[in-house]
Amino acid sequence: MICTICDQPIEDGQPRKRVARTRDRYTHKACRTASTTVPFITAWSGEQHVEPLVVYRLLGGIGYSGEQPQDRDSRGVLWLRRHAARGSGRPLYGDVHPGRQRLAMERLLCQVCGEPADTDERGVLWLLEDARTDWEGWPNELLTTHPPICRPCVSTARQECPHMWRGSVLVRVGRSEVCAVWGRRYTPSRLGPVPIASAVVLFDSPLLGWTVASQLVRALYECKIVSVDEELSTARP
Question: Which terminal residue of the chain has fewer beta carbons within 10 Å of its beta carbon, N or C?
Fold first, then answer.
């Protein structure tokens, strides 16, 4: 019998729950338990989403009406505005806070707890959606918006976040570099800048000046898929 959430066997005697309106499908009881952990990069309802007017910039591209220095990073990239009040209101799972995601990607912080991600001689630890069929050598040269993770939070994810865990693999990344942003691209029109698509935009792209970034992107190199059990059983130095 296989759990319909985590795809792992349900052993004899393990607490389980029947899937609604079915006779022969079950889940682990633990997989149906609400998570008590809110990832560091998750946005909260109390963090107001601010949408200033997007206007043409004299130097080309777009900017905000009443733009402030903190609206752009050191590369001159325009960022989505969102207040920072982590823990205020309720967590919006699936909604990423642009400021904390950017911080985690720049400093290689764990996406779950916000502490430094696990690093050893093989590289930084990442939990990635398994897409090994996409190309030979995956995930080398993968572009991702997902920050890395630490070993304690790997265990937490497996126990509390079956939807995050399902279909994922653990990877050691020997080298990575910040190379792009994920954001909303704009195009000129007679009535002002108009959003046309959300996409990855490389730093050397001429479209960068027409983008409002919401997440930072890293390219991953020198990658090796590792065993979850071995990683969790290895003592920290």
Answer: C
